[in-house]
Amino acid sequence: MNVDSDDGVLEITFDRPGVLNAITRGIAGELADTIADASPDEYHAIVITGEGDAFSAGGDIEGMASDPVAPQDAYEEVSETFGRVVEAMLECPIPIVAKVNGDAIGAGLAIVALSDIAYAAEDATFSCAFVKVGLIPDTGGTFMLPRLVGLRTAKKLAFTGEFFDAERAADLDLVNEAVPAPELDDRVTECVERLGRRPTDTIGMMKQAMHENMARHWSEALDYENMLQVQARGSDSHEEGVAAFLEDREPEFDQ
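Structure (tokenized):
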């Protein structure tokens, strides 16, 4: 995994193109640590992508076969690797953008689903392929996929492991948009630049509220939303936004 930063953007690249960027347990832990350690004071966006022709083929099945985990240790192993990726991505206060340059399979698809915004090259393909190796969707797949594409569609994708293209991924809301491959970099750059003109602290609260409220009754969700809105109203970002509106200018947020 390669990590670069430039002008407030942290870019994480899966860099094992020879195995279609398959994710080992070690890479999953490194990904979780990198995202968890990222500070909104330093970054206004995180971009996740892949090297070569694939975004990620998912978990490294060959590695799992050559280095098996004893059944009594399996829960801890899953929780401390791919499970921590879910926790880190959902709790990260910085918006995460998936730049899906190629195939997103298994855990690769799940990482796309966990991202806040996703753009895919039109020639990328997707599959919730866990069933083909006798596994259930992990890396949050059973949690996020039904919420994005609907329960019935999520069941079909998971039960069959069928492949589908980027246009269908966009139709299902798994990605925001499918774009011609030569335009992918520019589209993601345009997105993160726009995020850079918005208050990262406010976006972090939006993300927190949406994720926390997915499992709440509407009345509890409303109460939580109101609590965060009070925090937002007391922020420097709100003060600057109001001043810019009254002065008819673009706001200049610190975060």
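The radius of gyration is 19 Å. The chain is about 50% helix and 15% strand.
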